[in-house]
User: Which sequence fits this backbone?
């Protein structure tokens, strides 16, 4: 997506007019994910893809029309269409594709500057709205500010709040509202393109609790890795919801990922082994890294033993305060699934500055403006 953005910026800076087709929703076995895009230039050249070849011809024709008519179009392609086979989407999937005209504009330059500076940013685009003039409106959202408008202050406020949550996960999704941003309404659809990689969740310990947490972590938008030194337990078949399953000593794997720059301050580390020969070396690495969350499972006795051993290795009280142990919020959880919810709740609470108490017992706004832990 970033490579295509670079080309858009190059061409528009030279005064070119482009047609941009973006996959905004998929159903069933669609060949591409939301956010996949295809660029059609005035000279007829094409970059990118929305379907891997299935419907490129039809989208190319539509993009050419949109450039001439200057009216954005949301089009569905799939087996439910009468001409499904004529456009070639025979895989059984369905694609929603939004096509718009792109020219040099302030929002586009701001987006390019933010991406080049590696500053997290999301682009919200109105792809459906009863008011034709609002379709194609853009709103840029950063963790601490926004630029542009989607037609009304109420819509801008509602969308900004939701987009910040989406941006924190690095996903690209469609959001639905009423025409003025009503959360329980319908009529306005906004597609959010996030220019930030997915945050990672590293689950150490190939146990049943890890399987439940991997499932929930994936649901929350994390790229989930399960790691364990025991090959008999660390298998893909036991953790189908994980993006990858690694057989390695936990501390050694985390060290390699840190050295390679593949983890950052949004990364979540959960230590579920409650085995000191794994836990202490791993926590010794994790607690000295700039990570978003480090939690460890175990009883009060296990926790006290861990803390004593880590103190013996020179960890200060301030460093040890970064460790969430025993892991999770007090939900009274018993099963692996309930425990996974408890852990996820603590991660969410720390990310957004929540208090972990019942909302009915609080006053004031429900949502925070920006993440506390990144």
Assistant:
């Amino acid at each position: 997506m970033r490579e295509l953005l670079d080309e858009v910026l190059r061409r528009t800076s030279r005064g070119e007019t482009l047609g941009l087709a973006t996959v905004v929703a998929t159903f069933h076995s669609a060949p591409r994910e939301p956010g996949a895009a295809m660029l059609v230039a005035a000279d007829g050249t094409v970059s990118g893809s929305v379907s891997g070849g299935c419907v490129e011809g039809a989208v190319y024709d539509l993009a050419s029309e949109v450039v001439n008519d200057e009216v954005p179009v949301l089009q569905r392609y799939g087996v439910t269409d009468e001409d499904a086979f004529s456009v070639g989407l025979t895989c059984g999937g369905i694609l929603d594709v939004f096509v718009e005209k792109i020219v040099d504009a302030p929002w586009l330059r701001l987006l390019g500057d933010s991406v080049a500076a590696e500053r997290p940013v999301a682009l919200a685009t109105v792809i459906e709205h009863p008011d034709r003039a609002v379709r194609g409106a853009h709103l840029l959202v950063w963790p601490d500010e926004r630029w542009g408008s989607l037609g009304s202050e109420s819509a801008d406020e509602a969308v900004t709040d939701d987009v910040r949550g989406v941006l924190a996960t690095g996903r690209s999704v469609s959001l639905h509202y009423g025409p003025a941003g009503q959360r329980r309404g319908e009529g306005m659809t906004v597609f959010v393109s996030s220019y930030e990689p997915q945050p990672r969740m590293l689950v150490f310990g190939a146990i049943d609790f890890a399987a439940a947490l991997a499932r929930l972590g994936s649901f929350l938008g994390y790229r989930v890795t399960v790691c364990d030194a025991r090959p008999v337990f660390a298998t893909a078949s036991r953790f189908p919801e994980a993006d990858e399953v690694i057989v390695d000593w936990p501390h050694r794997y985390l060290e390699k990922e840190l050295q390679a720059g593949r983890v950052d301050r949004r990364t979540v580390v959960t230590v579920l082994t409650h085995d000191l020969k794994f836990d202490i070396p791993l926590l010794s690495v994790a607690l000295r890294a700039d990570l978003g969350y480090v939690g460890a499972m175990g009883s009060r006795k296990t926790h006290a033993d861990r803390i004593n051993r880590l103190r013996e290795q020179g960890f200060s009280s301030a460093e040890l305060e970064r460790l969430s142990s025993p892991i999770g919020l007090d939900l009274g959880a018993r099963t692996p699934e309930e425990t996974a919810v408890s852990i996820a709740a603590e991660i969410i609470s720390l990310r957004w500055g929540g208090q972990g108490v019942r909302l009915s017992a609080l006053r004031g706004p429900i949502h925070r403006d920006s993440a506390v832990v990144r």
The CA atoms of residues 329 and 345 lie 7 Å apart.
